[in-house]
Structures are given as C-alpha cells and as structure tokens.
Prior knowledge:
The chain is α+β, with helices and mostly antiparallel strands. It has two domains: 1-43, no CATH class; 46-205, no CATH class. 59% of the residues lie in helices and 13% in strands. The structure holds zinc ion. Residues 13, 15-16, 18, 33, 35-36, 38 line the site of zinc ion (ZN).
Amino acid sequence: MIKEHELDKLIICKKCHTLYEKVPLTKNEKAFCNECNVLLYQQDADMLNKSLALVITAGISLFIAFNFSIININIQGLEQSLTLTSLFMVLAEHEQYVVGLLFLFIIVIFPISILLSTFVLLFFMKIGKAPYLTKRLLILLAHLKPWNMVDIFFISLLVSMVKLFDIANIELGIAFVAFLFMLILDIIITKNLSFHELWLLHAQTYGYKDE
Ligand SMILES: [Zn+2]
C-alpha cells in the first residue's frame, strides 16, 4: 500500500497529466512540466510573510464587519441600521433558533476559527517553533476549509437587499464593505496558500524526513 506522504512526493501536471517526482527547490525556483511547460510547483520564499499579512488584514476586516452596521434601512422615514448583533436579536425574537445557530456558525464561529488557526499556524511556522501544534493545525484547517461559507451569507444578504430596494431606502454600511473586503482577501489567501506546500515547508522547517 502506498502511504499518503509518499504520494506527497509526486506531482501531476494539470494539463497533460504527466507524473513527476518532486525535487527540493531553492528560493524562488519554479518547476515546469517537460511536455507542456505548465508551472508544476514553486518555492515561494515569501509565502508565509505574505499570507500572515493577509490573514491579519482579514482579521481586522472581520472585526469591523462584526461591530459596525451592515446596512441602513429607511422605510418611510423609519430608519434602522442592521448590525450582526441586531440580526441575531431579531432572529431570537422570532424564535428562529435553528437559523440563528446556523448563522452563528457560518458567520462567526467558522471564520474566526479559520483565521485564528491560520494565523497561529503561519506564525509558528515562521519562527520555526511548535512542530506538533502546527501539524495539528494543518490537519484541523483541512477539515475547517469546507465550512468557510461567508460568501453564502454575503450572497443571501444581496438577495434580500434587492427585494427590499422596492420598498425601502437602503444604504450600505461600513460592515458591508468590510465583509466584501474579507471575501476578496479570503480568495487571495486561498490562492496564495497551498496546503501541499505548507506540508512540504513543515517538513523542511522542523527538519524531519519522510519515514
Ligand atoms: Zn504537462
């Protein structure tokens, strides 16, 4: 049976599906496919620093998104601003506990857990400490990633806003922009941070060999 970390040494070309065995690269070196010249993998020396900066910015955006108004609604002179807290209050008032709980996980618990564990992971890998913790975090993040659904919340927010446009005056709040900003950052982080490279970097940083 082939062990998982043995598979990690292999890489397949996305375009022509040629199989290669990975070789260690030096700083900023790139490996290309012999057949079709597609980029296979690279050693991005700044990956940790770049990602750390992005994660911190995303954290600040999330903090703003939680504390400021998402939208201001004006229905015939009656003005109301919607914050995340007031959203949960309204849901509780209407006894929508299941929806409330779902929202709590999608918008609050999962994003915070993902950002926080990514931050701790990158930070410790950067200073080369806590090999066990970072290994557990890599595994945890692989499980958490599919639950990153702030985008779904954002889309449902847009849909409900479009419905409200007919009957109310809607102004976008600071938190709305912060949510949007966080989504964009999240896409960049996901693109920048390859788990495959993180595992490789993990082995390099803490200096163990694949058994
Ligand atoms: Zn190829």
